[in-house]
Amino acid sequence: VIIILFSLYKIGTILYGYYQGNSQYEEVQEIAKTEDKEADGIDFASLKKINEDVKAWIYLKDTAIDYPVLQTTNNDYYLYHMFNGEENGAGSIFIDYRNEKPFKDFVTVFHGHRMKDGSMFKPLVQYSDPEFYKSHKVIEITTPKQKYNCKVFAVATIPADSDLYQFYFYDKN
């Protein structure tokens, strides 16, 4: 009986975390969207009043991917903190701290969880299906200064401590 009760408690905690995360990001989406389409429809001024770490907005049509993108001085904080700073297992979508000039560096690396409830970066696993790729070839990234339509050409799952992460490419000639 104790094991069953403990298991139910753990499941309830996980489900409540999903609920909290989804509710919080629905609120952020309401704050971010503008009617006058300034900065391509994202109200960065309002977002920055809540969190100065916001760098962009990422959107993939017909999926759950519709989130602010953050960046801080390490890759640990936003793994388990939401946009408003609350601790939550869903975390946030964030840019690697080693990107000194996001969107101007040769490569800008985004991190995010693949949540079991389908949120955060979970929809990206569907790129293994050619039909999904055909209808989702472009990911929109909006910054306060520019909108990028990024064509998807490859998707890979790489461990966080992999040597494959490269931010700078030097010409050996």
Keyphrases for this structure?
173 residues, alpha+beta, six-stranded mixed beta sheet, 3 helices
Describe the structure.
Helices cover 25% and strands 15% of the residues. The protein has 173 residues and is of the alpha+beta class. Strands 4-3-2-1-5-6 form a six-stranded mixed beta sheet, covered by helices on one side.
Q: What's the arrangement of secondary structure elements?
A:
Blueprint: H1 2-32, H2 44-50, E1 54-59, E2 66-70, E3 93-95, E4 110-111, H3 130-135, E5 138-142, E6 147-151
Parallel strand pairs: 2-3
Antiparallel strand pairs: 1-2, 1-5, 3-4, 5-6
Order of strands, widest sheet? 4-3-2-1-5-6
Structural class: alpha+beta
Give the end-to-end Cα distance, rounded to a whole number of Å: 69 Å
Helical content (DSSP H or I, runs of 4+): 25-40%
Q: Spell the H/E element sequence.
A: HHEEEEHEE
**What is the radius of gyration?**
18 Å
Give the DSSP E fraction (strand runs of 2 or more residues).
15-25%
Mean pLDDT across all amino acids: 84
